[in-house]
Design brief:
Blueprint lengths: L3 H22 L14 H4 L2 H11 L9 H11 L2 H6 L1 H9 L1 H5 L16 H14 L5 H4 L1 H30 L6 H11 L14 H13 L7 H5 L2 H9 L7 E4 L9 H5 L22 H5 L5 E4 L14 H19 L20 H7 L5 H5 L5 E3 L12 E3 L12 H5 L10 H5 L5 E4 L5 H4 L6 H5 L7 E9 L5 E9 L9 H5 L8 E4 L13
Antiparallel strand pairs: 1-2, 3-4, 5-8, 6-7
Helix pairs in contact: 3-8, 8-14, 8-17, 10-11, 10-12
């Protein structure tokens, strides 16, 4: 019979591959539909579901999928962390060398006193959600991993792959360069994006994720053991582990402590009666490494987890109180009095207060955006809106015939829309800067904005006046103007304006459909 830890490793690899395939497929492929359930891991994430329900006081049918994770956790404990979680697998891979090394400590490298920290983080996150601030997306491992890969690493991977293929093609090797050109064409739109993605805060987000992985050199699976709020939630739900109790036979045990040193979750199987069920990742390392077969994992209905840490009610209450104090500090900024004009939300975004309570900053919408126009917000919506999506027309516009962002949102922050519904939604309004627009400032005709406007009937129209050319001859000067009744704020006029540094037409968030108080006229 195959060793269970080898089956577990195979499961980790398989689900990481599935995660990466879905991640790569979260991209425009030339079709209106993505075809695959790219948000699958988010849909089965109970922390995302619970925090969204608490913050927005609304539930979605898709949240029911997270109950499957909860039900299996009741039976098996933190199996999701040890067998399925992509971030857990990455942590295991990075910390593999560290796990193999002998530690001076008889119980292996670790910081057992920090095990309780993740439970305080969980209480803080859920308390903040209860008070209206959905902070789960910052720390939830699935949301964190997707955001980090999409914004922090995907642009670099795309850039390196493109540069390598272009260099190989430029070598002009007979019979080979053509193959590289064909490979480049095949990869574009499948593995690589159609255009090189560029994101604001790319280095910051990549550095945070790299730091999380680097913590594995301090202790194996440091994030999973001490910081992960989803792990804490699953640990509490599955603390009884009815189908997977770890027992050490004291009569056989030779006190070698190999089980403790090999334990991925720092669940301390030794000594007998010291096993911490909340920390057990069901990795089976303890059973497989025991030289005398003193460790057994078997089903039981009796209370388990005698070694679980005392969470100390005072500290749990303190974590909740900290959330109560923090929420007003992060929620009430200047954007509540006067909205930032550059904060243009994607079409389908629900009203701003509910949007901030529902969005989990996973980055799926930014990854799938066809033109790379959706970018992570920084200060435009205050700290509460950090890393939520906003359209930056200078980098990319909202494609008129695309509704992919509404297909991938896991929480309903961007409502699911048909293409026809999406095309009727206004997300902003264009304005001409008469000091920079070529017809106004230079007295020369330029129709780029009107040419690209996708709105039916053209939201940009021309008013003809008499102009005087440099030779003194009169001519018909066409001055562009915006019709607020037709403009949808897609930003293509700003993106395509030939004035590349600071366009002569710019889009503001005013006049968006979701907020009556922002109607322009």
């Amino acid at each position: 019979m195959a060793k269970m830890k080898n089956i577990r490793r195979l499961s980790q690899i398989l689900f990481l591959v599935v995660f990466l395939v879905l991640f790569i497929q979260t991209e425009y492929k030339g079709e209106d539909e993505l075809g695959l359930p790219v948000r699958l891991f988010l849909d089965f994430d109970p922390l995302i579901a619970l925090s969204s329900i608490l913050a927005s006081h609304a539930a979605r049918a898709v949240f029911l999928l997270s109950l499957i994770t909860i039900a299996l956790t009741v039976l098996l404990g933190r199996f999701f962390c040890g067998w399925l979680c992509p971030l857990g697998t990455m942590n295991t891979a990075v910390g593999y060398v560290r796990m193999r090394r002998r530690s001076k400590s008889p119980d292996g490298a670790g910081f057992p006193r920090l095990r309780k920290v993740k439970y305080f983080v969980l209480v803080f996150v859920l308390s903040a959600a209860l008070f209206g601030w959905n902070a789960a997306g910052f720390l939830d491992p699935i949301s964190l991993t997707i955001r980090s890969l999409a914004i922090g690493f995907n642009p670099a991977v795309n850039g390196i792959a493109r540069s390598a293929l272009e260099f190989l093609y430029s070598l002009n090797i007979p019979g080979v360069s053509g193959a590289f050109d064909a490979l480049y064409s095949k990869m574009t739109g499948t593995v690589l994006a159609f255009e090189q993605p560029v994101f604001r805060q790319m280095i910051l987000i990549a550095s945070i994720f790299a730091a999380i992985l680097a913590l594995n050199f301090a202790a194996p699976r440091f994030w999973c053991r001490y910081l992960c709020p989803l792990g804490a939630l699953l640990g509490l739900v599955g603390s009884k582990q009815m189908l997977a109790r770890v027992d050490v036979d004291g009569a056989k045990c030779i006190s070698c402590r190999k089980c403790n040193r090999s334990c991925q979750g720092e669940a301390t199987p030794f000594p007998s009666g010291n096993w911490a069920s909340r920390e057990c990742l069901l990795c089976y390392n303890c059973r497989e490494i025991c030289p005398v077969k003193a460790v057994a994992i078997h089903p039981t209905m009796k209370e388990t987890g005698e070694g679980n840490v005392d969470l100390q009610r005072r500290r749990l209450l303190a974590a909740g109180a900290a959330a109560l104090v923090t929420v007003p500090l992060v929620r009430f900024g200047e954007h509540h009095k006067r909205p930032d004009p550059s904060l243009i939300r994607p079409p389908g975004a629900i009203p701003e207060p509910e949007f901030l309570q529902t969005c989990v900053k996973c980055g799926e919408c930014m990854k799938v955006c066809l033109t790379n126009g959706l970018q992570p917000a920084l200060t435009q919506a205050g700290f509460e809106g950090l890393w939520t999506p906003m359209l930056v027309p200078r980098l990319g516009y909202c494609e008129y015939n695309c509704n992919l962002c509404s297909q991938v949102c896991p929480t309903g922050a961007i409502a699911g829309l048909t293409l026809e519904e999406k095309q009727r939604i206004r997300i902003g309004l264009a304005f001409f800067d008469r000091n920079r627009c070529i017809p106004y400032s230079m007295g020369r005709n330029c129709g780029v904005c009107e040419e690209h406007c996708p709105a039916p009937g053209k939201a940009i129209k021309f008013r003809e006046v008499e102009g005087i050319g440099r030779d003194g001859a009169p001519f018909a000067l066409k001055l562009p103007e915006v019709d607020p009744a037709l403009c949808i704020g897609c930003g293509i006029c700003e993106n395509k304006c030939p004035i590349v540094d600071k366009p002569g037409v710019r889009v503001s968030s005013i006049n968006e459909s979701r907020a009556e108080y922002k109607l322009y006229l």
